[in-house]
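Figure 3 (text version): structure tokens given as input.
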């Protein structure tokens, strides 16, 4: 039975770096505006810049494109958004996303006994969001067991996008699973763009399979939700609690995790995800 579940778990200002960007970066993601780069590509000692592209980057708080060339083992996954909330990664397992174009990604886990990738973002009040969009490309290779979930993007007591025990995308707001919506089933072994949006009164779950096509969307009127306080920053590809640490890892791969402080339209999500036919 599908149900919204929340486990108790436990950050964006503006400080962009001026940077010159290698032209090859422009082909990595959707066409649009460059948000932020980490360092000048012309500097011989600088690491390759991370970048984030979107049709309209207004309100972007986190952008982990996972394009950094060294995301193996323990590493830093750089945030391409202006707030520069770089994430800590352990057990990094690089993989390639092939839809809609080739892009570096991370394999989160294959089985319960395999190495599991942890991606944790530092806590920040920048993520105290009265409205939001959570989005990511995922390729799930299994379905959670009964009463379990695969965490995709979560910040405790505030917002959660996850895959439930029937393989569906679910969105939840606050500390109660009553405030949310059940979305459509995410196909196995297929790269899909998924998103949760909340505009202050309505929460929506969106699923866009493959590189082109139409969006499947489910929405629910939940009104204004009084979210609780969080004790940690967002986690990507898993869930987190102070007692258990990281758990409920995605079995599969993940790419292009983003958080906005506003509810994007389906068209914005489609274009920002690099899909065609938007």
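Below: residues designed for each position.
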């Amino acid at each position: 039975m599908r149900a919204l579940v929340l486990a108790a778990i436990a950050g964006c200002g503006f400080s962009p770096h001026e940077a010159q960007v290698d032209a090859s970066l422009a082909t990595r993601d959707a066409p649009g505006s460059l948000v932020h780069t980490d360092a000048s590509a012309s500097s011989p000692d600088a690491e390759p810049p991370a970048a984030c592209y979107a049709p309209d980057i207004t309100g972007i708080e986190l952008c982990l494109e996972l394009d950094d060339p060294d995301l193996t083992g323990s590493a830093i996954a750089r945030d391409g958004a202006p707030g520069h909330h770089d994430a800590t990664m352990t057990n990094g397992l690089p993989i390639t996303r092939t839809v809609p174009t080739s892009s570096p990604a991370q394999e989160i886990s294959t089985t319960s006994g395999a190495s599991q990738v942890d991606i944790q973002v530092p806590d920040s009040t920048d993520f105290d969001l009265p409205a939001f969009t959570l989005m990511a490309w995922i390729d799930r290779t299994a379905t959670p067991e009964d009463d379990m979930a695969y965490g995709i993007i979560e910040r405790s007591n505030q917002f959660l996008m996850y895959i439930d025990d029937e393989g569906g995308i679910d969105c939840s707001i606050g500390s109660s699973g009553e405030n949310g919506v059940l979305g459509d089933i995410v196909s196995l072994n297929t790269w899909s763009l998924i998103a949760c949006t909340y505009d202050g009164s309505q929460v929506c779950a969106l699923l866009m399979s493959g590189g082109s096509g139409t969006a499947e969307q489910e929405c629910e009127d939940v009104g204004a939700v009084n979210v609780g306080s969080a004790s940690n920053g967002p986690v990507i590809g898993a869930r987190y609690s102070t007692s258990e640490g990281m758990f409920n890892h995605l079995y599969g791969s993940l790419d292009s995790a983003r958080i906005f402080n506003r509810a994007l339209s389906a068209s914005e999500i489609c274009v920002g995800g690099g899909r065609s036919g938007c």
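Residues 1-50 have pLDDT under 50 and may be disordered.
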